Amino acid sequence: MAEFIQILVSGLAAGSIYALAAVGFTLLWQASQTINFAQGEFVMLPAFFVLIGMNFLGLGLWPAVGFALLLSLLILGLTFKKLIVEPMLPHGTLPLVIATIALGLLMKESVKEFYGATAQPFPPIFPQKVFHVLGASVSAQDIGNLAVSMLAILGLQLFLSRTRTGRCMQASAQNPQVAEILGVDVKRMALYTFLINAALATIASVLISPVYLAKFSNGETLGLVAFIAAIVGGFNQIRGALVGGLLIGVIDNISAVYISAQYRAAVPLLLLIAIILFRPQGLLGSKEGRAV
Amino acid sequence: MTRKQILFVVLGIAALIAAPLGQGNYIIYTMTSWLLFSIAAMGLNLTLGYAGQISLAQAGFMGVGAYVTALMTLAGVPWILAALSSIGSAFVVGLLLGYPALRVQHHFLAFVTLAFNTLLFLVLRNEEEITGGSFGLMGMERPTVFGISTDGNLNFYYFALVCFLVAAGIMWWILRSPWGRAFKALRENPIRAESLGLKVRRQTLLAFAIGSAFAGLAGALQSPLVQFIEPSSFALNHSLKILLMVVVGGAGFFFGPMLGAAVVILLPEILRFTEGYYLIIYALLVIVLMVYSPNGLIGAGQKIWSKFKPKHEARRDLEKGFQL
Q1: Mean pLDDT for chain B?
Q2: Is B72 inside any structural domain?
Q3: pTM of the model as a whole
């Protein structure tokens, strides 16, 4: 029992970080039909912005996080939208998919060449304390990760459903033409989506890097997990991405303990295939009309 | 085909026959691997450029082909039978994967194939008793055709060239047949195609399975070419590489994949002086190409050519909507 609680909590903590990436992924999909194959690299990169801020500019941890957030908003949000997505949208999904694959490669290789190929230690955000609950040891880091990502997603959900801007964003995602007729600045709303995605990626990056260390190749697994979480949960729902992320985190941890370590990575993939077979709209997703 | 096109094709084949003569082993090897990747890319082009579906497992299908051929030839089965089984198994796996994935829209095939490629890698690596695990399989013999051994690199090049030409011929025939034209119709306007009685899902599924079968053939050639196969040669990043070949060359153009394969295989040689920066430059080039010309290099070529081509200009007073 104690072991199970431990696995559950650390699974939820990892899963909530996956959920951040998955939520960003679904947001981009909704707002601009962009399948971002570089999403994993989007989560990998901000950690290196933080490290640059700390090691080369001599900033403290929190100012460096602010610096990283700023750079991410500029590069992963604004530049990505204006320079890559916007000119390619009229050409359909395929060129954009290819461009994001190339972008992921570019980010990965640039970090490897210009910062270093080895895993970099990353300062912990939370105190390195361990609590004992019902005989299980639960680290403050896990609790902190879970709390921060949940708050971020909750905040996002409130923003989207309670504020005027948020509702405009939803309207533009659901039906851009009608939203435009009703006076919503659709392009600006899409830009906000990209900025939110960049911010979510930064949070995820800062949370996950103390656990996995900052490494150029982190994006490969993270990106895959984000896809799986988004699809398992339901491609058109923030709630879905959240549930998908948590589920994948827990399942991954359980299979690491109870199933062979060799096939640990296979379990989420099998789950993905099962979901596509039996419930293609995802666990929480609603069926979409066929887009033509 | 017009007479000019036939002339070009004959010249091209002559160039392919003459090209390796007097070259070193390394260049011949590189050219042979270009032929293999062209076959795989051609198959993916059918899925991507004609049926409009993204497959991220083309290297995985090559892996299926390579392992089937390797295991069979190591057991003493002649290459040709092994190759046919490779093609067949890639086709069947394609059908099995594609059937559920194509029930849903939104590029789900991309995700299913992505998962398949990763799973295949895990299985190839972990089932050591059959696949040799991460040590791979080695010592596959090169086939003997009509008593001529293809052990030499030049001989094997010509052997691969024949396979390549046969594959290209079959692809040409598929695209010309009424059945292949249906693919084009699907891509251009799926609703209209459906209203004309085409079964969209069946056509797309077949395109994907046939495209996968081409990768099976490429894998069947890869086994005897390298004479050593291991799981990481068929990992996801190689699938992305083949996808890039198709798109860089020009998806939906017959010669696109061959051009793309040449670029992707030759570029590292040309950019060798940049050392570690090669992939960075390559990724940047791809992004710029996609932004400037989503139809790849052939599309870009057409764009530039049409700028210089003398245009047939209609008399202004006859233009539609012109009123005095």
Answers
A1: 86
A2: yes
A3: 0.84
Query: Nearest by CB to A87, which of B48, B280, B291?
Result: B291
**What does the pLDDT look like over B146-159, one tens digit per residue?**
777 777 788 889 99
- Is B209 an interface residue toward A (CB < 8 Å)? no
**How many structural domains is chain B composed of?**
1
Residue type, A92: G
Would you say B80 and B94 are in contact if contact means Cβ atoms under 8 Å apart?
no
Distance CA A208, CA A232 (A): 21
| B281 contact A CB<8A | no
Distance separating alpha carbons of residues A239 and A233, to the nearest angstrom: 8
Q: Does B190 touch chain A (CB under 8 A)?
A: yes
Q: Vertex B198, ends B196 and B202: CA angle to 5°?
A: 170
Q: Does any domain span residue B200?
A: yes
CB contact under 8 A, B191 and A110: no
What's the alpha-carbon Rg for chain B, to the nearest Å? 21
Residue B34: the pLDDT is 92
Task: Look up the domain containing B123 and give its range.
Answer: 24-235
| CB contacts < 8 A (A, B) | 107
Tell me whether residue B187 is in a domain: yes
In B, which residues are within 8 Å of A81 by CB distance?
Answer: none
Does residue A154 carry a pLDDT above 60? yes
CATH of A2-122+148-278, one of 1.10.1200, 1.10.3210, 3.30.160, 1.10.3470: 1.10.3470
Tokens representing B131? 């696949």
pLDDT single digits (tens) B159-212 = 999 999 999 999 999 988 887 788 778 777 878 888 888 888 888 888 899 999
Residue B170: which of B39, B260, B4, B36 has the closest Cα? B39
Quick count: other Cβ atoms within 10 Å of Cβ A94? 23
Confidence class for position A290, pLDDT limits 50, 70, 90:
very low
Q: Which amino acid is at B268?
A: P
Domain locations in chain A as residue ranges = 2-122+148-278
> Across-strand partners of A132?
A137
* Structural contact between residues B209 and B96, judged by C-beta atoms closer than 8 angstroms: no
What whole-number distance in Å separates Cα of residue B172 and Cα of residue B175?
5
Confidence of residue B324 (pLDDT cuts 50, 70, 90): very low
Which pairing describes strands A130-133 and B144-145: parallel, antiparallel, or unpaired? unpaired
Sign of CA dihedral A216, A217, A222, A227: positive
Residue B33 inside a domain? The answer is: yes
Q: What is the pLDDT of residue B48?
A: 86
Higher-pLDDT residue of A282 and A288 is A282
Query: Band of the pLDDT at A126, cuts 50, 70, 90?
Result: confident
Q: Among A222, A178, A211, which residue's Cα sits nearest to residue A36?
A: A222
**CB atoms B108 and A280 under 8 Å:** yes
